[in-house]
Specification:
Elements lengths: L2 E4 L3 H13 L7 E4 L3 H10 L4 E2 L3 H7 L2 E4 L3 H11 L8 E4 L6 H5 L5 E6 L10 E6 L5 H11 L4 E4 L5 H29 L4 H20 L5 H8 L5 H13 L2 H26 L1
Parallel strand pairs: 1-2, 1-4, 2-3, 4-5, 5-6, 7-8
Antiparallel strand pairs: 6-7
Length: about 270
């Protein structure tokens, strides 16, 4: 089975690294391209047996599974460009949330799936979100899910929770990294700890925290209960968090969903214009 990636930006490169580290596919079976082709050749320097193809149309003709890792605004024209090279046996996989599988199925003559990855897949961990079009064959669906299990935990989701699931799985690492960085900055401002030491302690805490959850020692509520001794220091900190965070995450979700709806509107407009 030949896999192809159109778009070797951040997420495209993360997927390639995850696939190569997990050995889910051999380098010889992976074909890549990018609008700025030098970026694709930069990936080949790291994995010399990967095939770089100069044009998206030629990649679509070569690969059996084509992963679209382009920006939402670029996808409509890209699909027009590769349409004639796709067959009913091919499977097109989009990694962007605004394009539903139902919308994609109206634009291409092949099987369609959506796979939303996470940067955590680079560590062969975390979740990969899947949605499948009605045209996807049972064998193709099974192949994609089984392949993703090698580098992640696949989760099939309905359309109506796509954005919030993506917020947690795909955006979550950035959100919580920002909060951790803010904690580090405040520690340096309020105490004599160095940024280097605060960063090291924070990173080690997060690694251990993840292991506690991974190994099933505690749930999230249990972690709070075990650390937060009544009347203790942690309790005082939790009180501050309860007061200060307020509707923080409600506002965050509101903003991500507003952007999601904006992207869908732009896509709809492109299709009408096209």
């Amino acid at each position: 089975m030949k896999w192809g990636i159109i778009g070797t930006g951040n997420m495209g490169q993360i997927l390639i690294d995850a696939w190569m580290s997990s050995k889910v596919i051999d380098q010889e079976h992976l074909y890549i391209t990018n609008r700025n082709i030098s970026k694709a050749y930069a990936v080949k320097e790291k994995y010399p047996n990967i095939h770089v193809i100069d044009r998206a149309q030629d990649l679509a003709e070569t690969a059996d599974i084509i992963f679209i890792c382009a920006r939402p605004g670029d996808i409509f024209q890209l699909l027009i460009d590769i349409y004639s090279r796709l067959t009913k046996d091919d499977c097109l996989v989009s990694i962007t949330s605004p394009y539903s599988v139902q919308r994609l199925e109206k634009l291409v003559p092949c099987q369609v799936a959506r796979m939303i990855p996470s940067i955590t897949n680079r560590a062969l961990a975390g979740t990969t979100l899947f949605s499948f079009g009605a045209s996807v064959r049972k064998e193709t669906k099974g192949y994609l899910i089984q392949s993703s299990r090698i580098f992640s935990n696949p989760e099939i989701i309905p359309e109506d929770i796509t954005r919030i699931a993506s917020d947690i799985v795909s955006c979550g690492p950035a959100f919580f990294s920002y909060l951790a960085q803010q904690f580090i900055e405040a520690a340096c401002q309020e105490t004599a700890i160095s940024k280097a030491q605060a960063t090291q302690l924070m990173e080690n805490m997060l690694i251990g925290y993840g292991k506690l959850l991974e190994d099933g020692h505690y749930s999230l509520p249990q972690l709070i209960e075990k650390v937060c001794v009544k009347g203790g220091v942690t309790g005082e900190g939790i009180n501050v968090l309860e007061k200060e965070t307020g509707q923080l995450f409600n506002h965050l979700i509101s903003k991500t969903h507003a952007k999601y709806r904006e992207d869908i509107e732009k896509i709809s407009y492109q299709m009408l214009e096209g």
